[in-house]
């Protein structure tokens, strides 16, 4: 059973919703959870945009609704750059209408309808913190507009909890990114971090891993709007390495991440 609740954030006269999937005890619920985000400026034709792992994205649908998610990573294929996020952030069946535009938090264009059609969505499975071995695919991608300055080599985040002192504490400083790594059992017990546009950088231990279908369950705080956030782990090279994409969980407690690297060959 799924339900939607809407929190309104004024931005160019449209409602804006932090987008996230929340698991309630005994039932799956799809929720749009208030995150206290600051209002974004209206997009303009001349707005220059840049993006990177951990940056916020505004998803606009054909019916004029807007929702907030997080960029998982930036991927280059043959000189063309793509943005990666959670599949449910782009899935018309869950949004209620096709996505027609993706923007930065301050209104810069990241992708128009043609760019979105050049991407895709993979959605299946029900894995969550209470059923970590149920399997899950939650992966979406879109071509970045030619005007965008992409940064595939770093991860960072801001926070928008509505509490300035907490936002300063949660802000994720720029860190270099290496190649994504696969989901494996040796992650269990390790400290990993996620960078989300709403709750910033939060870290915690990996509780469970499904290495067959590549999901990670971790004790990491997250809130609505963090969907798509990169889950990353430290490497011996001194860089961070993305291992997963935030899909669903319980508010500010346990969260489930779909393995990122397994899907990258679809782009």
UniProtKB/TrEMBL annotation:
Q: Which one GO biological process term can you cite for this protein?
A: proteolysis
Sorted alphabetically, which PROSITE patterns does this protein's record hold?
TAT, TRYPSIN_HIS
Q: List the transmembrane segments.
A: none
Organism of provenance: Corynebacterium kalidii
What is the protein name given in its UniProt record?
S1 family peptidase
InterPro entries membership = Peptidase_S1_PA (IPR009003), Peptidase_S1_PA_chymotrypsin (IPR043504), TAT_signal (IPR006311), TRYPSIN_HIS (IPR018114)
Enumerate the GO terms in the molecular function aspect.
Answer: serine-type endopeptidase activity
């Amino acid at each position: 059973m799924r339900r939607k609740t809407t929190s309104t954030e004024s931005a160019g006269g449209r409602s804006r919703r932090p987008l996230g999937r929340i698991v309630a005890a005994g039932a799956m619920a799809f929720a749009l959870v208030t995150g206290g985000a600051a209002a974004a400026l209206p997009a303009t034709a001349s707005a220059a945009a840049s993006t990177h792992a951990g940056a916020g994205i505004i998803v606009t649908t054909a019916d004029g609704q807007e929702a907030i998610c997080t960029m998982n990573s930036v991927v280059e294929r043959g000189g063309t750059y793509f943005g990666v996020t959670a599949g449910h952030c782009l899935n018309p069946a869950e949004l209620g209408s096709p996505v027609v535009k993706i923007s930065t938090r301050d209104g810069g264009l990241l992708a128009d309808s043609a760019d979105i059609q050049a991407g895709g969505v993979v959605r299946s499975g029900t894995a969550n913190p209470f059923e970590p071995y149920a399997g899950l695919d939650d992966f979406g991608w879109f071509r970045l507009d030619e005007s965008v300055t992409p940064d595939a080599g770093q991860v960072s985040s801001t926070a928008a909890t509505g509490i300035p002192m907490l936002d300063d504490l949660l802000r994720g400083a720029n860190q270099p990114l290496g190649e994504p790594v696969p989901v494996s059992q040796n992650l269990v017990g390790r400290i990993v971090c996620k960078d989300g546009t709403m709750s910033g950088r939060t870290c915690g231990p990996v509780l469970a891993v499904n290495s067959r279908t590549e999901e990670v369950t971790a004790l990491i705080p997250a809130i609505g709007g963090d969907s798509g956030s990169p889950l990353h782990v430290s490497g011996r090279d001194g860089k961070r390495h993305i291992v997963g994409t935030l899909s669903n969980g319980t508010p500010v407690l346990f969260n489930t991440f779909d393995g990122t690297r397994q899907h990258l060959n679809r782009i």
